[in-house]
């Protein structure tokens, strides 16, 4: 399995990402995650829609909480032809509890805890922590990655506006 040393940091400490690195222009790799009811969900479930994948280490941390709430607010104003997915290694039960407590209902939380198929498929699994790196990926309606931001310092937020601009650009493309 491919590894990228020093790909991201946490509080300045270098971390290694495991898995196949993806780039803008690549076909989005498939994955199987669990929804809050423990049902398997693949990327194929969103075929024909623009998909925003928000990869976060854990919903129960301050920056992940802020980021996911922000994408939830933004998702409310997007077209029904856009799916916003928040993916973490949190257990589905924890994700469901967090969504209820945070009032999040405009995006879908999915868990990669079982097989790390998303983390490995996108090269976002942090070796030292078995958590996902912070990233935002926009996949167009044809299944091609059109935007990708890997946030270098895990404790920082992504560029929301750039991600949303990519969504708008590829919604009608």
Blueprint of the fold:
Blueprint: E1 3-10, E2 13-18, E3 32-34, E4 40-42, E5 50-55, H1 62-76, E6 82-88, H2 92-102, E7 108-111, H3 117-121, E8 125-126, E9 131-132, E10 135-139, E11 145-150, H4 160-171
Parallel strand pairs: 5-6, 6-7
Antiparallel strand pairs: 1-2, 2-8, 3-4, 5-10, 8-9, 10-11
How would you characterize this protein structure?
With about 170 residues, the protein is an alpha+beta fold. The protein has a single domain (about 25-170), classed as Glutaredoxin (3-Layer(aba) Sandwich), CATH 3.40.30. About 25% of the residues lie in helices and about 30% in strands. The protein contains four helices and eleven strands, in the order E-E-E-E-E-H-E-H-E-H-E-E-E-E-H. The strands form three sheets. It has a five-stranded mixed β-sheet. Strands 1-2-8-9 form a four-stranded antiparallel β-sheet. Strands 3-4 form a two-stranded antiparallel sheet. The longest helix is centred in the middle third of the chain and has 15 residues, at about 60-75. The protein is globular, with a radius of gyration of 15 Å. It starts with a strand and ends with a helix. About 40% of the residues are buried. The model has no long low-confidence stretch (mean pLDDT about 95).
């Amino acid at each position: 399995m491919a590894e990228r040393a020093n790909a991201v940091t946490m509080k300045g400490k270098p971390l290694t990402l495991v898995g196949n690195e993806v780039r803008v222009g690549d076909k989005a790799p498939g994955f199987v995650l669990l929804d809050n009811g423990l049902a398997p969900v693949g990327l194929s479930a969103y075929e024909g829609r623009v998909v925003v994948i928000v990869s976060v280490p854990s919903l129960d941390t301050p920056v992940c909480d802020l980021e996911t709430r922000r994408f939830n607010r933004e998702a409310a104003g997007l077209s029904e032809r856009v799916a916003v997915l928040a993916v973490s290694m949190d257990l589905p039960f924890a994700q469901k509890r967090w969504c209820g407590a945070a009032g999040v209902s405009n995006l879908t939380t999915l868990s990669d805890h079982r097989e790390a198929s998303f983390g490995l498929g996108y090269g976002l699994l942090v070796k030292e922590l078995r958590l996902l790196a912070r990233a935002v990926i926009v996949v167009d309606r044809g299944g091609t990655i059109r935007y990708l931001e890997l946030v270098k310092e895990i404790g920082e937020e992504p560029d929301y506006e750039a991600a949303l601009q990519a969504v708008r650009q590829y919604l009608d493309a």
